[in-house]
Specification:
about 50% helix, elongated
Length: about 700
């Protein structure tokens, strides 16, 4: 049917060739792409709609092989010396249009996720021979020394294979390292294991377990040669796929051996529904464990505690500060002071170097003393604005991706589609670039110029600073990300894994960045530069900034020093997410499908509140110590959580996984560094925003001469 349609399209093109030639080059290219898309959509309709008629071909895609302990050390399936199935797709059958080992078209998300699906060469036909078992087999030539070494390495490192049928994944082990079956110590157990017809891997415990003394017994490599593929279907849809390896088919690998591989295919009708076919891959017992619910409750209680603490500061401590300041100001203006509180000239006596009223300092309280400096521009304003802009982009991106995942029932669950999450991240990142530009531009405008900024405000310098802010916002995070990913890509290229990002995908990402992200960032920066920061058009801050900055006291209590407060704030923030972090890391590195996006959304909101509350407390203590450099302190309070995230990643690597080798170690810590960096910028931005609102609120309610 697809071939007929394709021929009709070609005939139509031939009839209208003069008309097509009269079109412009872009128009002809667009028309060609439309015809190509039409052909592709027709020829692959069954696979994308997941509907088949009896006898329709079903593709069995092989994805990768690699050590089970190292998820990123994955190689192409036919990098092992498997033979091509003796079907119409055999490489020798050129006339029949062999699809053996042909690469499937992948999206950007799939390639970034390390998927490289190739046709297995097996010829599966939907619901054919439901009462029979179809056998497809092939024989290898005599294994060379190199080929035998490949299988031996796969058995030694516990390699597994990964396949897809109708977008349903199946896994299995390549082989095992087992004792010599001719050894008297294990011969009986070996025979019992083979006779029991156990499922894949179950026999291993019987062979190497059983309290056997294996000292001095040589382990030899064995490869599974028989696999049983069971495909269950409901009407015209595939709903279940099972693949098991026969332990009785384990053959010792050695140079010169000839291996006979067989795939037994059986189609079975079932009443299971199509919409729930992926549920069997979801570990509900793990993700919806009671501990997971308890961690959410525990984090919620932390939120209530911190909100109560902040409310105490706002409603009690600050109220006392306001009352004391109002009392002292009123008494000083009206002269309502006792004789023992004034000197011979009628001026108030000093209390610890400050005017005293009723034995209390009459001058401004701790945080009130810095009203003339609290809205001074932070150091390295250009860099700070770019970081905050990037942070707002990450906040928007994270919320967008989580909401997209939560809405899975409406558009399709993201864990059921390969690379869907990465595709959503790329899309949200590109579109949220306008948020980064606007946030950095408006923040730079807010603090630049006048007494708030130390830098000169000549037109030339101001323009250069705007350009630097825009360039940093565009380049900062992408540059760091590209450096890390380029290093990992080089390592992957040297090892020859399928996780190497293809050059065309790199060009596509670069094009998205150049033609979407960069223009939106520039446009957002221009919007921020011309944004109206005050409703009345005047000074956007409640207090004027002094021309000369006041010195910051050095002799302050330990709880007034940022270096002591920032780590504590990070611990509290990390404590609200570390259980969820465990589930995320387990999904990322231990072959589990993360699907509890409602939990993730709740933890994200809790994290936002915890970071906000802890940052407000840190900034309040610093202002009470007369330290008005609160902007970087607020950012560091939120960002400090990333240090604990990275340290937890180190702990997870050594105690929760069995990863080994330079390649896997490089990928793990490279990705962990990226996660910690992005999370630090995100939380630092949340901390700065909440602290900014807090500082404005408390200084707006005081009267300053």
């Amino acid at each position: 049917r697809a071939l007929q349609i394709k021929r009709l399209d070609l005939k139509t093109c031939e009839k209208r060739l003069p008309t097509m030639r009269s079109l412009s080059l872009p128009s002809r290219l667009l028309l060609s792409l439309l015809l190509l898309q039409k052909d592709v959509s027709v020829t692959n309709a069954d696979e994308y709609t997941h509907r088949y008629a009896t006898g329709d071909k079903v593709n069995l895609w092989v994805n990768k092989v690699g050590p089970y302990a190292n998820p990123q050390e994955a190689y192409e399936y036919y990098s092992l010396p498997y033979c091509a199935p003796d079907t119409e797709h055999h490489p020798d059958n050129v006339e029949s249009g062999s699809l053996f080992n042909k690469l499937k078209i992948h999206s950007i998300g799939e390639r970034l996720a390390g998927h490289a699906l190739r046709h297995s060469g097996h010829d599966l036909k939907f619901a054919s021979g439901s009462e029979q078992t179809v056998v497809e087999e092939c024989n290898t030539k005599s294994l060379t020394t190199e080929e035998a070494a490949s299988f031996t390495k796969a058995a030694e490192d516990q390699w597994f294979f990964h396949m897809y049928i109708d977008d349903l994944p199946v896994w299995g082990m390549v082989g095992e390292m087992l004792p010599d079956p001719n050894n008297p110590k294990v011969k009986k157990v070996w025979e019992n294991a083979k006779d029991s017809q156990q499922s894949d891997l179950q026999h291993l415990n019987d062979v190497v377990g059983q309290n056997l003394d294996l000292e001095g017994i040589e382990l030899k490599p064995f490869v599974y040669t028989y696999r049983y593929l069971s495909v269950s279907y409901n009407k015209d849809r595939i709903v279940k796929v099972d693949l098991t390896s026969d332990p009785a088919s384990l053959i010792e690998v050695k140079p010169g051996a000839e291996l006979n591989f067989k795939l037994f295919i059986k189609w079975e009708p079932t009443d299971e529904e199509f919409h729930s076919r992926f549920d069997r891959y979801l570990d509900h017992a793990f993700f919806k464990h009671q501990i997971h619910w308890f961690s959410i409750f525990n984090s919620f209680m932390m939120v209530l505690f911190l909100m109560g603490l902040v409310a105490l500061i706002l409603l009690r401590t600050l109220r006392k500060d306001y009352a004391r300041y109002a009392m002292s100001r009123s008494d000083l203006e009206e002269g309502d002071m006792d004789d023992d509180q004034v000197d011979e000239n009628g001026k108030p006596l000093l209390h610890e170097g400050r005017p005293s009223v009723g034995g209390m300092p009459a001058e401004d309280s701790g945080w009130k003393q810095v009203h003339g400096d609290v809205f001074r521009a932070p150091r390295f304003l250009t860099l700070f604005a770019a970081i905050i802009g990037t942070g707002w982009q990450l906040i928007t991106l994270t919320m967008g991706v989580i909401l997209f995942a939560v809405a899975g029932p409406l558009h399709g669950e993201v864990h059921e589609e390969r690379g869907e999450v990465l595709h959503a991240i790329i899309t949200c990142y590109a579109l949220s670039s306008i948020v980064a530009g606007y946030s950095s531009g408006s923040l730079f405008k807010l603090y630049s110029g006048g007494a708030r900024s130390k830098t000169a405000s000549s037109p030339g310098q101001a323009s250069a600073q705007w350009q630097a802010t825009m360039a940093l916002t565009v380049m900062l995070l992408p540059t760091i990300t590209v450096i890390i990913l380029s290093t990992l890509n080089t390592v992957s290229l040297v090892y020859g894994t399928i996780n190497t990002i293809p050059f065309l995908v790199i060009l596509e990402l670069f094009a998205i960045w150049v033609f979407v992200s960069v223009p939106l960032t520039i446009f957002g920066t221009l919007l921020g530069r011309h944004a109206k920061l005050s409703s009345k058009g005047g000074d956007p801050f409640p207090c004027r900034v002094n021309a000369i900055p006041r010195p910051i006291p050095e002799d302050v209590p330990a709880y007034g020093k940022p270096v002591n407060l920032i780590p504590v704030a990070g611990v509290l923030s990390f404590g609200s997410i570390f259980i969820e972090l465990y589930y995320l890391l387990t999904s990322l590195w231990n072959y589990k499908f993360y699907h509890v996006y409602g939990f993730l959304l709740g933890v994200y909101l809790i994290l936002t509140i915890v970071v906000s509350m802890t940052t407000i407390i840190v900034v309040y203590f610093c202002l009470n110590a007369e330290n008005y450099l609160w902007q970087w302190t607020a950012f560091a309070s939120g960002a400090s959580m990333s240090i604990y995230v990275f340290l937890y990643g180190v702990f997870f690597f050594f105690f929760k996984t069995s990863m080994n080798g330079f390649l896997q170690t490089a990928f793990y810590f490279g990705y962990t560094s990226l996660i910690a960096l992005n999370l630090g910028i995100l939380c630092g931005t949340i901390g700065h925003f909440s602290a900014s609102r807090f500082v404005r609120a408390i200084f707006k309610n005081v009267k300053v001469d």
